[in-house]
């Protein structure tokens, strides 16, 4: 089976929203704008693409606690297509990026890493993720990123037998 891993760099368009499934799994979602500049007929053009990003479990919780609108981030994950039904009964398809890793872009910002604690599979405490941090575009604090630490992630398809909302 082909691997569909993608890595994108862009600016968060809305603060991450953290929700929980009926089974208690955390899932954060946010929008990402990716700018592409190119020259056409000697003039610079700019095209913006918008993506929805979802992050499960500790990665999602860390992202919601660390990231804000305007933060430039690097997201690595996979493309997932899912179908849902609107309140009016219309079926819709969406393609989104399900994140495996999220981190701040340090091109125009700095970040401070704060490790978080997590329970390991043997009952002990494991090392942490990526939390909090210094500046972001647009001024102010709140840069930083999430840190997927494995374990607890549902089997593919990403939602398992639970829908996220």
From TrEMBL:
InterPro entries: NA-bd_OB-fold, Primosome_PriB/ssb, ssDNA-bd. GO terms for molecular function: single-stranded DNA binding. GO terms for cellular component: nucleoid. Keywords: DNA-binding. PROSITE patterns: SSB (PS50935). Residues 113-165 are annotated as: Disordered. Residues 123-153 have a biased composition (Gly residues). The keyword DNA-binding applies. One of its GO terms (biological process) is DNA replication. Gene3D superfamilies: Nucleic acid-binding proteins. NCBIfam families: ssb (TIGR00621). HAMAP family: SSB. This is Unannotated protein. It comes from freshwater metagenome.
């Amino acid at each position: 089976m082909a691997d569909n891993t993608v890595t994108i760099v862009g600016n968060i368009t809305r603060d991450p929203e953290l929700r929980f499934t009926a089974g208690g799994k955390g899932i954060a979602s946010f929008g990402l704008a990716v700018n592409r500049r190119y020259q056409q007929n000697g003039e610079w053009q700019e095209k913006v693409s918008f993506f929805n990003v979802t992050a499960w479990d500790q990665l999602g919780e860390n992202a919601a606690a660390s990231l804000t609108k305007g933060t430039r981030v690097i997201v690595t994950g996979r493309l997932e297509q899912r179908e849902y039904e609107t309140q009016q009964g219309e079926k819709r398809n969406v393609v989104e990026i399900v994140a495996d890793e999220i981190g701040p872009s340090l091109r125009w910002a700095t970040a401070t890493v704060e490790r978080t604690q997590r329970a390991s599979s043997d009952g002990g405490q494991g090392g942490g993720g990526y939390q909090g941090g210094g500046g972001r575009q647009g001024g102010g604090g709140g840069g930083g990123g999430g840190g997927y630490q494995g374990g607890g992630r549902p089997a593919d398809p990403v939602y398992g037998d639970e829908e996220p909302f």
